[in-house]
C-alpha cells in the first residue's frame, strides 16, 4: 500500500503516521505533503493507493486539492483527517469525492473502522 499523508504540521503528519502504524498498517509506504499544492503534485506524480489529508493547509486547502485532483481525472481514494467535522464539512467532502472524514482527536480504532472498508 502506498499512501500520502498531507498536513501543514509536521508533528500532526507524524501523529497520523504513528496512528496508522498502531492501527496495523505498519507495512505501508508513506509519503508526506506539507500543503495542498504539494499534495496535488505528489498524487499526479506517484499514483498512491490512498490519501489522508488535513482540510486547512496553505497554498491549497485539502478540499481544493481534492477538487483539482478530480478535475484532473484522478480517482485516488481520498479521506480527510481534520480538527473540524461539522455536518456541512462532511457533506462538502462527500460531494467533492472524499470517502471519509476522520475528526481529531482520533484513535487507532477509529482509523481501522473508517479505513478498513475503503481497502476492500
Describe the structure.
The protein has 120 residues and is of the alpha/beta class. Among the domains are: 1-34, no CATH class; 64-100, no CATH class. It has 5 helices and 5 strands, in the order βαβαβαβαβα. It has helices at residues 10-22, 36-46, 62-71, 87-96, 108-119; strands at 2-6, 29-33, 50-53, 78-82, 100-103. A 5-stranded parallel β-sheet has the order 2-1-3-4-5, sandwiched between helices. Strand 3 (50-53), helix 3 (62-71) and strand 4 form a beta-alpha-beta unit. Helix 2 packs parallel to helix 3. The longest helix has 13 residues, at 10-22. It is globular and about 35 Å long. It starts with a strand and ends with a helix.
The Cα radius of gyration reads: 13 Å
The H/E string reads: EHEHEHEHEH
Going across the major beta sheet, what is the strand order? 2-1-3-4-5
Strand percentage lies at 15-25%
Give the averaged pLDDT, no decimals. 95
Shape: globular
Number of strands: 5
Cα separation of the termini: 12 Å
Largest sheet: 5 strands, parallel
Uncertain stretches: none
Helix content: 40-55%
> Helical region count?
5
Structural class: alpha/beta
Task: Offer a few descriptive terms.
120 residues, alpha/beta
Amino acid at each position: 500500500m502506498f499512501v500520502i499523508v498531507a498536513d501543514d504540521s509536521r508533528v500532526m503528519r507524524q501523529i497520523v503516521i504513528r496512528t496508522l502504524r498502531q492501527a496495523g498498517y505498519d507495512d505501508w509506504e508513506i509519503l508526506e505533503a506539507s500543503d495542498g499544492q504539494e499534495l496535488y503534485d505528489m498524487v499526479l506524480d506517484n499514483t498512491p493507493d490512498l490519501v489522508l489529508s488535513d482540510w486547512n493547509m496553505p497554498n491549497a486547502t485539502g478540499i481544493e486539492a481534492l477538487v483539482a485532483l478530480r478535475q484532473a481525472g484522478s480517482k485516488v481514494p481520498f479521506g480527510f483527517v481534520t480538527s473540524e467535522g461539522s455536518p456541512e464539512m462532511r457533506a462538502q467532502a462527500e460531494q467533492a469525492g472524499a470517502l471519509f472524514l476522520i475528526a481529531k482527536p482520533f484513535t487507532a480504532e477509529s482509523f481501522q473502522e473508517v479505513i478498513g472498508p475503503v481497502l476492500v
